[in-house]
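User: I'll paste a sequence; please echo it back and then give the predicted structure.

Assistant: Echoing your sequence first, then the prediction.
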Amino acid sequence: MSKKVRVRFAPSPTGPLHMGGVRTALYNYLFAKANNGDFILRIEDTDQTRYVPGAEEYISEALKWCGIIPIESPWIGGQHGPYRQSDRKSMYRAYADQLLESGHAYYAFDTPEELNEMRERMKAAGVAAPQYNAITRSTMKNSVSLSEDEVAKRLELGEPYVIRVKIPRNEEIKLKDEIRGWVVVHSANIDDKVLFKSDGMPTYHLANIVDDYLMKITHVIRGEEWLPSAPLHVLLYRFFGWDEPSFAHLPLILKPDGNGKLSKRDGDRLGFPVFPLQWKDPKTEDVSSGYREKGYYPEAFINALAFLGWNPGTEKELFTLEELCEAFTLERVGKAGAKYDADKTKWFNQQYLRGKTNGSLVREFTEILKGENIDDKGIDLKQVVGLMKERATFVSDMLEGRYLFEKPAAYDEKTIKKKWKEQSAEITTNLIFELDKIEDFTSDNIERSFKAFLETKSLGFGAVLPIYRVFVTGLGMGPSMFAISALIGKAETITRLETGLNAMNGR
């Protein structure tokens, strides 16, 4: 590539950042890093009516949590700023005027009522999708249909107007999409979009093009929902006499079941977040869950997102952010939408959790114990997390092992019903006697003694271990009972076995 690669992520602050938006930011970031380029963040807030307080800060925090760090942004600055469109308001009018002067745009004075009347007339004439275009513009109040004097008069009187792009009447617009190949759209299918609104703000179409040009953006990587706008954007580049960037329109993230784009409603219905961080709606005060607060690691979230539409061409699935940067290419992004798999995302988190050192997990687990007001009783937490992490998807799952710090309040009835037999009381009494004889109460010694006990009594594991487990932990399943017993100590192990035995004798 001859020019330095520059890409941008340009969200609108209209609410929390959807995971689809995070993936768009991620792919831009990966592409930039893979090509020694720049990734910038721009806030597109031209539609002030939809602005939501706190949304900008949410976007910034979410990207930071994900490790998607821009080199330029509203908070970092840069030589191509400002990076918030509302702060760039004063510069857009000059570009709208340039299009007016070149004949590629025109003033339109139509009222909302007149626009509705036009649409109704078109519908009555059998037009399924009425548009303000090369055909209808001649019947409306604009600088194409009105005389120069009339236009000048309306402008002098301060009559409200918008500036519309003048789409050619009979032309094929072509663009090459990096993912989808050649896209060809006839100009008859494009309406004369508003470029500049009556409130003095540009629309997305004008501001987006001007900003991308001034910020030297070389590649526009965005969601496929913007593909219908791409031909218009190509025309605007042409009208300005600018070289257009390369375009790449990403496939949708689809709901796990059925068809269609993944939505918050799907997440609520199926029990998974669709936002990276928790979000509290400033108007309704409704709280939406986030991956961070649910206990996901950002590495796992990013890894899962990367595979929603892209593949490395190998069997490898676990990639650090740095590895993703090295492996990513647009050529391996698919055209088809990718179904979101919540279980797969959990699997990614499980893998990253298992890869953590016991020391780092202890820090996380300690905070969880504090939140639950659980006293660790001086038990070696490194051993605890080492024992529990193979069964955990999230650090909070390690609370399954609260029996290490607290006596069980109840026993798994299914296990009791299935495994408690006539001889179980005698077997448990004898087991207590054997455990009490162990001087060095280590996991290995407990296991050795237990197996010798089974052999001496001609018993199988199934006759002893389930009752042993349920009396000590309260549960029917779990990690090694020998390791559990070693952690809580001989006295506590025996006490719990005796308590369980008494409880069963009292039934």
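The mean pLDDT is 96. The chain is about 40% helix and 10% strand.
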